[in-house]
Predict the 3D structure of the following.
Amino acid sequence: MQIMRTADEHFTDLPEFPYAAMYCDVSDQDGGTLRVAWVEDGPADADPVLMLHGEPSWSFLYRQMIPILVAAGHRVICPDLVGFGRSDKPTRIEDHTYARHVEWMRSLVFDVLDLRRVTLVGQDWGGLIGLRLAAEHPDRFARIVVANTGLPTGDLQMPEIWWRFREAIQGAPEIQVGRFVEAGCLRPMTDAVRAAYDAPFPEEDYKVGPRAMPGLIPTAPDNPASHANRTAWKVLSDSATPMLVAFSDSDPITGAMAGIFAGQMRGAQGIDHPVIANAGHFLQEDAGGELAAAIVRFLSRTP
């Protein structure tokens, strides 16, 4: 597998993101290795809060939330998915599969970091990957937070706005990643923040991950990932693991999933699920403080 690696110089002077990257090597599932990056903060002996980002962002997305969770005494770990952030970037669309992304994160979280009693926070692809991990390794997870995400099986139609996003990001001759993130927000974004979302992708050749991910979403029942996702949904539906459903009020892509999670997941019953106001798809960017505060309350009520 051929890879590209964004030079460190592109990650200097990031606004509100002073965290030095940590690195490890995992199998690329193709005979080689990939370098995967993550940032972490908080007490090393505290139970971990694993926060997984989605498409086309990176761990920078969680910069408003990390200090709040750390101040409440939690250890926070934010990886960069392969193809994003400071992690290595495979150069071919076909290098990316749903199964590989699950395995790459599994290897980091369990083989390298050996995380236990994990609280998962998953948004967008962070949920698609993280919920698979939670279902397939239930003994490792103490709590789950779903935030503007899903676990698609191809049995339900994706919304029209998602199809337009997929067409745009797959077909555009040039992708402005920061602009895509900004389009998924309601609140104003500064030039410096937009540039930080662009930082991992200095040239078009680095953007294979963002182009690949929409094509990995199961949109038909016979998709290669559909069976595994159906199995995971059944496991999670029956699980007593506490689940917080913390969706925003203005996400046209995943908004309909909030009621489904809250209604169908056993672990979500009896929990006060917040609606994060004045926030779009990237609610961490729009309302990271509000989301982090809701998670802190959830953690305190489910010790």
Q: What stands out?
A: The first strand starts at residue 3 and ends at 4.
